[in-house]
Amino acid sequence: MGCREDCSGLWPGAGTIRLEQDVFSALAGQGQIYVHLTDGIWSQIKSAGSALYASRLYLSQYQITHPERLAKHTPGGPRIRGNVYIHPTAKVAPSAVLGPNVSIGEGVTVGEGVRLRESIVLHGATLQEHTCVLHSIVGWGSTVGRWARVEGTPNDPNPNDPRAHMDSESLFKDGKLLPAITILGCRVRIPAEVLILNSIVLPHKELSRSFTNQIIL
Asked: Which domains does the chain have, with CATH numbers?
């Protein structure tokens, strides 16, 4: 929805619809909004950083409801720190260090010496030897080369805290990409020995150098 005429004087978010302010408030004023009570977990997903928070929440819940689903540190296996989920089909080298708050999907390959923390690795991805992935989401079928570093900035607070400030309407401020978690789309290829920091890489991209605070189209 947009403005055909001059939009000056309208609220700063003119042209967008905000769920809480524009939809819920109107429904509440008409007595048409209802509440569903649940004893399960629930989390808002307003940004990619919120997705990592939600993953952390689910992993914490597993400690209570399904502790058998969480990885345990065993002799000859990878070093586990905190809550970590590893899909049964994933292949993880014994010298890898995982956690806290890591989720590894179906068919993922994690090489020797890899360090993973506060990240989600989706199915079919490959992390080659000695890569470091922090505060990031690695897309389906993506490959991160040897000794590469993929890192984001954990700038999103708890999205369920009513006092939290989440500026999710724009990715930019003063013409610059705001620091946030790094996201690799599906089938992205990251070469060896580069740094991808606070960046978003769209699907099917093959990079050849380092990037910082950029969206790679």
From this structure: 48-162+174-212 (2.160.10.10)
